Amino acid sequence: MAGPIVLILIFVLVIYVAMAVRIIQQHELGLSERFGRYRLTLEPGFNMIVPFIDKVQKVDMREQVVDVPPQEVITKDNVVVTVDAIVYYQATDPVKLKYNVVNFIIAATKLAQTNLRNVIGDMDLDAALTSREVINTELRAILDEATDVWGTRVVRVEIQRIDPPDDVTEAMHRQMKAERDRRAAVTAAEGEKRAAILTAEGVKQSQILNAEGKAQAIKEVADADAYEKEIVAEGEGRAIERVFGAIHAGNPTPDLIAIEYLKALVGIANGEATKIFLPLEATGILSSIGAIGELFTDSKDE
Prior knowledge:
Elements: H1 2-20, E1 21-24, E2 28-34, E3 37-42, E4 45-48, E5 54-60, E6 63-74, E7 80-91, H2 94-99, H3 104-121, H4 125-130, H5 132-146, E8 152-163, H6 166-249, H7 254-269, H8 282-301
Antiparallel strand pairs: 1-4, 2-3, 2-5, 6-7, 7-8
Helix pairs in contact: 3-5, 7-8
């Protein structure tokens, strides 16, 4: 008789020990209750409890998602839009999450829907459609504050879509098309205006360059003519000086000098010379020239 009883006791002991062991996963925390009263929080790993007396409830501490169903919301300018969102939350206090709210998912969903109506209800349609980031931030702050007593933290809120009525959507499409057409027309007009301005500036610059080129050419021609005349005059002057030197080298009489000067004057009158250089004794020579001139005049009179 002793053998079967021992086997039964061993079996019961094994069952008891197996029921006393609780393995908590890394992403979980365990709430141990004794006779329905919270006793302690079990950490991840191996834990022992008292079977039939203690009860363990596991709480997932990972980030989770609440899908807010689509709902109709009236904007500030009385347009009905359909909005749905996603709320990401994470448990921070398993005790509050388990004992302060009956069903967190339902509570968070209703809270998100209510505050979503409040936030979008304070905006015009255009602002609601273009301010999703503002809506996300404001709604997350409201939900995070409200769910703090439930032992959770709202990580972020994402608005999935905001759908206006079909007639409003069609009107918006027409408006956007008209705006795009207007911008295209303005861009084309500005391009044509810019092209005309550039063309006019090009023509103007070309005319200026042509005028400057002509003026430069005229100036260069005038400078060349002046230089030519100056060179010719200098050459004639040097020739006269050489003639004068040659005449004086032969010890000429004043009458001969006067005749040579008269020849030079005749050349000047005919345009053959433009300059004449007088020596220092020009006074006596001019007197001789005057006397010879009087002789020529008298002979003509006779």
